[in-house]
């Protein structure tokens, strides 16, 4: 009987303490300093309105008033850090060659028309700017704009050179970097712990485990940004008639587990920003902000800006 009372009282105490700290995490953790706050994030510069990851796309998004540019980095044969999502140029340039096998001068221009990855049956036709830019050119052109860098390959030289550029342009307070792979994020943090990092995919799974067991309020977190997809997008990106029952179930389950307002509120109370990607219609914009996401990443920066202006979502 005494043992049962002890167990019940211990579990009750744990549950109540966890619930309290979930709502009020600053009782245990110091709130992280938010170096910038991004609600409007342009994915690849706004891949639905300009050719992705081009200077024209970045300029359009910044002129529009975006809070953050999201981009991807690779390393050329002559060790130049370039902005490109794909390591192979087949989709972007129509040439089956890897960026790592070519010098910067040898890189071909983009095709005139590119598919928009996160919008079904959508293509973007570009203007005159079809050049793959250097990361330093982006830093030069937009010195005051926060930039979200996806380190696309596990390359120590790439990580080191990106860090050196961030330091050279005094952007440690205006940059976040990482990748879905945990070993890349660890290398980024080790190379320069002053640049905030994203949660990797394994760390997202770990975060969910902590959340659903009630342990999250007690645990320290080194990351400052949670960047996650909205799993229900799967039903919009694929032809509904081609989705299997298991695919629908997986999407529903992932969406139910990941899109949790209590989780987002806890993280933002600790100074960890939550970005949801890649959302391209107003229904998803509204859902993301209703759930308490800090920001939305989109291929259509004009569409998101108009939505935010119309709904009074302050920057």
Automatic annotation (TrEMBL):
InterPro entries the record matches: GDPD-Related, GP_PDE_dom, PLC-like_Pdiesterase_TIM-brl
Alphabetical keyword list: Hydrolase, Lipid metabolism, Membrane, Transmembrane, Transmembrane helix
Domain called GP-PDE: residue spans: 38-308
SUPFAM superfamilies per record: PLC-like phosphodiesterases (SSF51695)
Gene3D superfamilies: Phosphatidylinositol (PI) phosphodiesterase (3.20.20.190)
Catalytic function, reaction form: N,1-di-(9Z-octadecenoyl)-sn-glycero-3-phosphoethanolamine + H2O = N-(9Z-octadecenoyl) ethanolamine + 1-(9Z-octadecenoyl)-sn-glycero-3-phosphate + H(+); 1-O-hexadecyl-sn-glycero-3-phosphocholine + H2O = 1-O-hexadecyl-sn-glycero-3-phosphate + choline + H(+); N-hexadecanoyl-1-(9Z-octadecenoyl)-sn-glycero-3-phosphoethanolamine + H2O = N-hexadecanoylethanolamine + 1-(9Z-octadecenoyl)-sn-glycero-3-phosphate + H(+); N-(5Z,8Z,11Z,14Z-eicosatetraenoyl)-1-(9Z-octadecenoyl)-sn-glycero-3-phosphoethanolamine + H2O = N-(5Z,8Z,11Z,14Z-eicosatetraenoyl)-ethanolamine + 1-(9Z-octadecenoyl)-sn-glycero-3-phosphate + H(+)
Single biological process term from Gene Ontology: N-acylethanolamine metabolic process
Cellular component terms (Gene Ontology): endoplasmic reticulum membrane
Compartment list: Membrane
Highest taxon listed in the record's lineage: Eukaryota
Regions crossing the membrane: 6-28
GO MF terms, alphabetically ordered: phosphatidylcholine lysophospholipase activity; phosphoric diester hydrolase activity
PANTHER family per the UniProt record, alphabetical: LYSOPHOSPHOLIPASE D GDPD1 (PTHR42758:SF1), PHOSPHATIDYLGLYCEROL PHOSPHOLIPASE C (PTHR42758)
Stated family: Belongs to the glycerophosphoryl diester phosphodiesterase family.
Protein's name according to its UniProt entry: Glycerophosphodiester phosphodiesterase domain containing 1
Organism: Poecilia formosa (Amazon molly)
């Amino acid at each position: 009987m005494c043992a049962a009372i002890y167990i019940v009282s211990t579990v009750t105490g744990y549950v109540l303490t966890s619930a309290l700290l979930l709502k009020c995490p600053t009782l245990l953790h110091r709130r992280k300093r938010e170096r910038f706050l991004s609600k409007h994030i342009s994915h690849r510069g706004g891949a639905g309105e300009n050719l992705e990851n081009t200077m024209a796309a970045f300029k359009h998004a910044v002129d529009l008033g975006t809070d953050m540019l999201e981009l991807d980095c690779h390393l050329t044969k002559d060790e130049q850090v370039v902005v490109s999502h794909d390591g192979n140029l087949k989709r972007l340039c129509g040439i089956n060659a890897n960026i790592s096998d070519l010098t910067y001068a040898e890189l071909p221009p983009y095709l005139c028309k590119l598919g928009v990855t996160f919008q079904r049956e959508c293509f973007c036709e570009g203007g005159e700017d079809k050049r793959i830019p250097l990361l330093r050119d982006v830093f030069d052109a937009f010195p005051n704009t926060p930039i979200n860098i996806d380190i696309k390959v596990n390359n120590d030289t790439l990580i080191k050179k990106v860090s050196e550029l961030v330091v050279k342009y005094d952007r440690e307070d205006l940059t976040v970097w990482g990748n879905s792979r945990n070993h890349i994020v660890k290398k980024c943090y080790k190379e320069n712990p002053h640049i905030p990092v994203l949660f990797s995919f394994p760390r997202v799974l770990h975060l969910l485990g902590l959340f659903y067991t009630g342990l999250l309020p007690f645990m320290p977190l080194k990351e400052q940004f949670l960047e996650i997809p909205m799993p229900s997008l799967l039903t919009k990106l694929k032809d509904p008639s081609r989705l299997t029952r298991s695919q629908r179930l997986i999407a529903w389950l992932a969406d139910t587990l990941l899109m949790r307002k209590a989780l987002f509120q806890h993280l933002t109370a600790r100074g960890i920003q939550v970005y949801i990607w890649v959302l391209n219609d107003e229904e998803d914009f509204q859902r993301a902000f209703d759930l308490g996401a800090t920001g939305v990443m989109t291929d259509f920066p004009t569409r998101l800006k108009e939505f935010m202006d119309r709904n009074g979502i302050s920057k």
